[in-house]
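Hello again, I could really use a second opinion on something today. For a while now I've been wondering how a particular protein folds. Please have a think about how the structure follows from the sequence. Here's the protein in full, and shout if anything looks odd to you:

***
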Amino acid sequence: MSHFHPNVHIGRIKEFLPRLTREIVVESELITAEFAVTPEPVSYADRLKLEYRPIREGETWGKMWDCGWFRLRAQVPKGWAGAYVTANLDFGGETLVFDAKGEPLVGLTNGSVFDARYSKDMLHLLPKCKGGEKVDLWVETGCNGLFGATIHNDQTRSADPSKLHGTYPGKVVTMRLCRFDYDKWQLWLDLQVLENLIAVLPENSLRRMQILRGYPLLDQSDQPVTAVHPRFLDTPPDICGDKIVSPLVTQLSWTQNLLILSR
């Protein structure tokens, strides 16, 4: 007679998800950047009037409440031909990304009111690149968080008067062109939904136990995770050409059924 231990299973889930997260970005290249800082916002039309200078990852670009414009340039490696390409961008504040023609592409942020671990820092560029494409982006950013400055503890006791009303450092966290595993990202999103349901559903509820028993736990070894796109779920394993695919197809099928069940 087999025994099911929910807490052991939950522990394995928490071990697996970080490993899957690390495998979503397969490799990356640094993006070349220039920036200009102003005390007040500058429109897209007037951005070329500013004086720009180079900046790299890890460097500070401004102080609290400053505004900045960045120009980003990169070229997709030819060896990435056929890959899904994204740009991982985090300037330490609120960000709006434009293409070279001035069209807004996406708003990014380094924080969330719902989850301290969450950051929206990925711009999806090319679903299937040819290799060699040039990337030219403009980024408007502000040196502030979702609710302005960061205030720690009792600021009235701060020895530094400049920090009395909070601080917010403007720092380039990351500027990278990424070879992105879209299918693993989709798998990660599905598993995150299931993990959240496990956390909020009543402990002994039938739905929670069904999710726990059906949660697609993969091999806990250090072998890479293989994700299969949903359109291949009915494809015979030998055609997929990977010995890992057959059991994983079943696990992904469980995931889809559980997502439907949990609605």
